[in-house]
Design a protein that fits this description.
heterodimer; A: five-stranded mixed beta sheet; four-stranded antiparallel beta sheet; B: alpha+beta; 28 strands
Chain lengths: 830, 550
């Protein structure tokens, strides 16, 4: 099914949404957002991703609605192109090639046929200029836009550093402590600068700028949390400014309401502040938005406002400053300390989410299932605070118990808490069962459950290892008091240590009878019934970094990886080293469903993947240069149904899928499927179609057709005919597409007529498809479907006609010929 | 968008005594009234009819009898020899009276076991002179005298038909008497030692039991010539009790309280060993749900009769000889070896409820508007749920650190829920504003703070936080040391408290070391296991240590 060598590294979990300010469509029903190389279209009402518009070869840096046609969208990218999209249908209309990197895009309505972009200045590093690009009106799709005229020099690279004033009369740009205002008509450039001495110790650099929509007023945000409102900036000397101060740290973004009566500001406090009247300093707050605000954008009618957050989330807020809804993908936290853990119940990936929360991220649907509050404390967004965060997570085999460890960031004397959560079936969520303060005297290094399905809950044991040189065994105890609220709680059962070495890792064998705990350089193996030390393994030099037991047929092996680049395999029966390999293993991850173990190494700025079975030292699969970034974590996620993989090389991917997380917080996976297969999941397509607006025409016709179908059934007509008519995608397309984007009637006519014909041959349909391809992608899709159906019909015809031999492909014919040529003389010997 | 998360107050599981419904119920008594009797109180009996007077039988103690012997004796033998004649009386007390309201004193020798009849009108009592006397509660002279025993009679009781009396004496006999004729009906001589306790069945007028020092309890039926059932208690039986249903029998003797199933032929149901000295008396509460036992170990234990677990216990000053509960559990009277009668009355509870009830609005206000069903065209506006936040949470939400600290330093919070104060201090520390919240306080407030810290810093659950707080306070207020006598005194107190705690910890470590050596000698395992065993013990003792300190 899959050709060998097709294993690809695929990014999943979506890219950061932080490229540019999000844009609301004119009717406030869609939200457009730059995400990596794509532009995403979200439905405001359902929070669903409706469309993914791809075409740029690099990061999208700016998106703006076409001021002259609000159904169109301009997008700029680092690949040096500006694209014009019809975002309702996801069709690229035009591509303008500028040539140099585009860092920001502005489309003021006053500029007739040009847009403004920020490009790096030629010959100089880290200097940027604002240029206006004349968009030529050509016939073709790909156009050159080389007519550049420099407007401002020495501007900031960020999109937030430039703003266009009322009716495009002037442009304001900020950089460091300087504000430049350029008036287009008068060709006048005013510069204002704040003295660096003015504020005491504060950093009054500009961070963002916006212009009042109706008045001559510029609002600027500063790194010290102040907002300045500039007026009278036509004059070089008599300008005035007033200061608004609430933020304690940098103002990340500002936005004026449509009428300009209100000003919204946001920063790292994750509080959206609404300033009503600059003179009275009246303000409203929307606190606790979860994470620092990166960008703020307003819809054109002023009813909605949306904020982009640093953790890859979009929050939509009502005009009366009420939280409306949020669009959330994989939360990118600063540091994933918990590792990648798979929830056995939902098969979701579990990792650090918001500060103090655990996110359950569904890989199938690419969305967050839920976020579990573990720390249960108010998070204060302030630099330099010692926050407590989640560091370890472990699930029991059935997913009924969840153990979490949280600790404060203090290095000495960390505030440790071990919490045990029970999955409440009725509430469908985890409930806190036991909280243990200071389970260890020092940081907890590892934690694992003994998971034995067959023995039930009695055998459930939790082991924690700590830097205080001990490992502790926690057991469930029945509460003796009949009036107590909960029947079980956890308590310490055993404390073990080995020569006062720090315990670093722990791991249970598959049947739960043995516990392996690594103490710095030594691996100790303990009997889990009597807690006797059975044997020790050591492979100096270097501390043990990872250990794991083999599974299934390889359960007699124990694998360990050391700091100094050795991968060792010990035989538990002979207590001897079976084999060792020189490999600097960063991540060691066993597949829970097979014997395979994946090891990711980090050598000379590239990560390599090795998959091996413990019983043979030769790896099954090697992929060098998996990615440029360092891989920190990996996890095998069991597949819902085993995938059929023909190639022997990839058999290890059959039962579960390998996911890994790099140090840049990108979640990646290995896939054998080609790009096209992955990109168009059928469910998504359906969602798009269902959410499309229903035109009156289709309603009318649909009703009519429904009636007809009813009548047909009543009359007892053959249903097959009816089905065929309904399934004609061309007609469907025709009815569903809004009238203004439909091609001319002459085109449609042929499609329509063709669709009415009962096709006999594949050819005619393909011809039609070729023609339509020029016009719209949408139509192409449908025609592919069309073609498929026809193929199906064809096969049925073929069977009827018995013309199978004629349809043989060339390769098959060759093979037949070969068979004919082979010498069968040996048969005669019998 | 998340709502404000209130400060998590670390609830510590209360170790030791857990507050249950029972503890609340049995704690609901006023401080006891002590009444001095003339001798060891060996029987208290409540009149079953209002006003619930009770009869107290006390035997005078022989002077010169060594008390140590009494306490150490395997079972409690009342002395029978009475050289120095004191008072031989039965006292009747009203429920709330401190002085006896009536006295029966027509005894020639010590009286025993004054017992009311079911209707509360007759009182029977045995005596050292082996005569059983029957009194009318309103009269003085005995109505009848039953003579037949040859030795002192220690147990007397009425059968439930009201016309017969049973008795047990030191002559090993258990007798049955007819009241009207004052004659002996039947005499059983089956016990082989002193008969010291007995009880009549409430459901069958012919059945009674007696317990004896020959370690047996015997069940007699007046219609037969011999005992119906014999139960081996295993120790000299000091007290017996029949449940109101008549199905279960409780016997007390030695350190054991044993419950027997009479209907199953005297099968042992449960054996309770909760006292560490001889159990002398048993009693059921009015509902029959709780069993009380008093012992020479100065404790009264209360058991649940469903689970037979101790649900509560009372402490008394000296060894307990007798115990009685008034109907409705209104009064507990305990008689002790030193002749003190300890009377506890139940606290009245109605007052609180009444005042609360007055404040509550009428039912109508609750129902108002609730029953309205919205019509289809109605637009429903839902009321936002109002979250109630504590004062310090409100202040913390608006980042007012100093005021939040002030709020938790108010006496009610500081005294009764120190964990709240500490939790807020910890939260402030986490926010990095603890120093500024502690600074800038006047003498009175610093005094308050230091009092709190000095008092609580030794509690293990608060120590980590309060040590930081103490550090900061000393840092901040170091320049003003010596200006205020009150503050200086508090600083000294703090120093003293910490010094004491350090000494204590050192001592504990010593003990730990000793235990380690002990355990090391116990283990006969290989070297490695020895090592880890020690560690385990270490962990265990740590837990014990933390438990102790709460």
């Amino acid at each position: 099914m899959v050709s060998p060598g097709a294993l690809r590294v695929v990014r999943c979990g979506g890219s950061a949404l932080r490229g540019a300010r999000a844009v609301f469509s004119a009717d406030c029903r869609y939200l457009l957002c730059a995400s990596g190389d794509f532009v995403k279209v979200y439905s405001v009402n359902t929070e669903e991703t409706l469309r993914l518009m791809g075409g740029h070869a690099d990061l999208v840096t700016g998106i703006q609605l076409n001021p002259h046609n609000h159904m169109q969208l301009y997008s700029s990218s680092l690949d040096g192109t500006i694209k014009l999209w019809d975002f309702m249908d996801g069709i690229p209309i035009k591509t303008f090639t500028v040539g140099s990197k585009l860092l920001a895009l502005y489309t003021p309505a006053s500029a007739e046929d040009s847009v403004f972009v920020v490009i790096p200045k030629k010959g100089e590093r880290d200097t940027f200029q604002l240029v206006s690009v004349k968009l030529t009106k050509g016939a073709g799709q790909d156009l050159e836009a080389k007519e550049l005229s420099v407007v401002l020099d020495g501007v900031g690279a960020s999109m937030k550093h430039i703003a266009f004033g009322r009716e495009g009369a002037y442009v304001a740009s900020v950089k460091d402590v300087n504000l430049q205002v350029y008036f287009f008509k008068r060709k006048l450039l005013n510069r204002f600068s704040l003295s660096t001495m003015k504020t005491k110790g504060g950093d009054n650099h500009f961070s963002c700028v916006v212009c009042h929509p109706t008045e001559d007023c510029i609002a600027t945000g500063h790194a010290d949390g102040k907002i300045r409102l500039w007026r009278n900036f036509h004059h070089r000397k008599e300008y005035t400014y007033s200061t608004l101060h609430w933020h304690h740290d940098i103002v990340m973004d500002l936005a004026f309401s449509v009428e300009g009566t209100r000003l919204l500001s946001g920063g790292v406090e994750s509080v959206l502040v609404q300033w009503h009247n600059e003179s009275s300093c009246q303000k409203d707050f929307l606190p606790r938005l979860g994470s620092p605000i990166e960008c703020i954008s307003m819809s054109s009618d002023g009813a909605l406002c949306c904020t982009l957050h640093t953790d890859n989330r979009i929050t939509i807020i009502n005009s009366n400053l009420r939280f409306s809804r949020s669009i959330q993908g994989l939360i990118k936290s600063r540091d994933v300390k918990t590792g990648l853990v798979v929830d056995p119940r939902t098969k979701a990936l579990v990792l650090n989410g918001e500060p103090g929360h655990l996110q359950f991220y569904s890989l199938q649907s690419d969305q967050q299932l839920f976020s579990l509050d573990i720390v249960q404390r108010q998070y204060i967004h302030q630099a330099g605070l010692k926050q407590s965060d989640l560091v370890k997570v472990a699930f029991s085999a059935q997913g009924t118990w969840l153990a979490t460890v949280e600790e404060s960031e203090e290095v000495t004397d960390p505030e440790l808490q071990l919490k045990l959560w029970f999955y409440h079936e009725e509430m469908q969520s985890f409930q806190l069962n036991t909280r243990i303060n200071t389970p260890h005297d020092n940081h907890i290094t590892d934690m694992c459950f003994r998971d034995m399905d067959e023995l039930g809950d009695d055998s459930l044991i939790l082991v924690t290892t700590g830097r205080d040189c001990v490992f502790k065994v926690w057991m469930m105890v029945e509460d003796t008091d009949p009036e107590a609220q909960q029947s079980v709680s956890w308590s310490c059962d055993f404390v073990g240590s080995y020569h006062n070495y720090q315990a670093t890792n722990c791991c249970f064998s598959e049947d739960g009878s043995l516990l392996a705990v690594s103490f710095e350089e030594t691996v100790t193996v303990w009997d889990s019934l009597t807690w006797d030390l059975k044997c020790t393994f050591c492979h100096p030099p270097g501390n043990i970094r990872n250990i794991c037991f083999g599974r299934l047929t390889c359960s007699k092996y124990l694998i360990g990886a050391t700091d100094y680049g050795f991968l060792c395999c010990w035989n538990l029966l002979t207590c001897a080293l079976e084999w060792s390999a020189h490999l600097n293993v960063a991540v060691l991850q066993p597949d829970p469903l097979s014997e395979h173990i994946a090891a990711v190494s980090w050598l000379s700025k590239e990560s390599s993947l090795f998959v091996f079975k413990p019983n043979e030292p030769r790896p099954i699969y090697i992929q060098r240069n998996l990615c440029k970034e360092k891989i920190l974590l990996a996890a095998f996620v069991p597949r819902d149904e085993p995938e059929m993989i023909s190639s022997e090389k990839y058999l290890w991917l059959g039962k579960s899928q390998l996911f890994f997380l790099t140090d840049t917080q990108e979640l990646m996976t290995l896939s054998t499927k080609s790009l096209e297969e992955r990109l168009t999941p059928s469910s998504k397509q359906l969602a798009v179609e269902e959410s499309l607006p229903v035109t009156p025409f289709s309603l009318l016709l649909g009703k009519h057709r429904h009636q007809q179908a009813q009548e047909d059934i009543d009359l007892g007509k053959p249903v097959v005919h009816n089905k065929e008519e309904q399934a004609s995608p061309a007609v469907k397309e025709l009815l569903h597409t809004p009238a203004h984007v439909l091609p001319s009637a002459s085109f449609l006519c042929t499609i329509f007529i063709n669709s009415l014909l009962i096709s006999k041959e594949n050819k005619s349909a393909e011809e039609v498809a070729d023609e339509v391809e020029m016009e719209s992608e949408k139509a192409e899709d449908s025609d592919e479907e069309d073609a498929k159906e026809m193929e199906q019909e064809d096969t049925s015809h073929m069977e009827l006609l018995g013309e199978i031999t004629c349809k043989l492909s060339k390769s098959q014919e060759k093979e037949l010929r070969k068979i004919r040529k082979t010498d069968y003389s040996w048969i005669s010997a019998f | 968008m998340a709502a404000y998360k209130p400060v998590v107050v670390q609830a510590c599981p209360k170790l030791g005594e857990r507050v249950t419904q029972d503890t609340l119920y049995w704690r609901g008594y006023k401080t006891p009234v002590q009444i001095k009797e003339f001798g060891a109180v060996n029987k208290i009996d409540f009149s079953p009819v209002p006003p619930y007077n009770y009869a107290v039988t006390a035997s005078s103690r022989v002077s010169g009898f060594p008390e140590a012997f009494m306490l150490l004796s395997f079972s409690w033998y009342h002395t029978t020899r009475c050289n120095a004649v004191l008072f031989w009386q039965i006292h009747i007390y009203g429920r709330y009276s401190q002085e006896p309201i009536k006295t029966f004193s027509r005894f020639r020798d010590a009286a025993y076991c004054a017992t009311y009849r079911d209707d509360g009108r007759l009182l029977a009592a045995g005596s050292e002179d082996s005569v059983i006397r029957l009194f009318d509660v309103s009269g003085k002279a005995p109505l009848r005298q039953f003579e037949g025993h040859t030795k002192p009679v220690h147990v007397v009781g009425f059968l439930s038909d009201k016309y017969r009396i049973f008795s047990g004496g030191d002559d090993y006999l258990s007798n049955l008497w007819d009241i009207p004729s004052a004659t002996e009906i039947v005499s059983y001589s089956e016990h082989t030692d002193y008969v010291r306790c007995g009880c009549a069945s409430k459901v069958n007028a012919d059945v009674f039991i007696t317990g004896s020092y020959d370690h047996t309890v015997k069940l007699f039926d007046a219609r037969t010539k011999s005992s119906v059932m014999t139960i081996e208690h295993g120790h000299p039986v000091e007290s017996v009790l029949l449940f109101p249903s008549g199905g279960l029998l409780v016997s007390a003797g030695g350190r054991y309280v044993k419950v027997w199933d009479v209907l199953k032929g005297g099968q042992l149901l449960v054996s309770l060993k909760n006292h560490h000295k001889t159990v002398t008396c048993l009693c059921l509460n009015s509902s029959g749900q709780r069993l009380l036992s008093g012992s020479l170990d100065r404790h009264v234990k209360i058991y649940s009769t469903t689970s037979y677990k101790v649900v509560h216990s009372f402490n008394y000053a000296t060894s307990i000889l007798s115990l009685a509960l008034s109907p409705e559990d209104e009064t507990i009277v305990v008689g002790m070896t030193n002749g003190v009668l300890n009377v506890k009355h139940r606290k009245p509870e109605e007052k609180n409820e009444k005042s609360q009830k007055k404040r509550q609005p009428v039912y109508r206000t609750y129902v108002k508007g609730r029953t309205y069903m919205p019509k289809q065209e109605d637009f429903c506006v839902s009321k936002p749920v109002k979250r109630v936040l504590r004062k310090y949470d409100k202040l913390l939400r608006s980042f007012q650190s100093s005021k939040a600290l002030d709020a938790v330093l108010e006496p009610p919070i500081m005294l009764h829920t120190p964990e709240v104060t500490v939790a807020v201090m910890q939260e402030l520390h986490r926010r990095g504003t603890l120093r500024s919240a502690l600074a800038g306080r006047d003498e009175k407030q610093v005094n308050l703070l230091l009092t709190f810290v000095a008092r609580r810093v030794i509690e293990p659950r608060f120590t980590p936080v309060l040590v930081t707080v103490a550090d900061m306070i000393t840092d901040i207020y170091q320049p003003v040391v010596g200006q205020s006598a009150i503050v200086d005194k508090q600083f000294l107190k703090l120093q003293e408290a910490i010094g004491k705690e350090i000494d204590y910890q050192e001592e504990l470590l010593e003990v730990l070391g000793m235990m380690d050596t002990l355990f090391a000698t116990f283990t006969k395992k290989r070297d490695t296991c020895l090592e880890e065993n020690k560690r385990e013990q270490n962990g265990l003792t740590e837990i014990i240590e933390t438990n102790r300190s709460y």
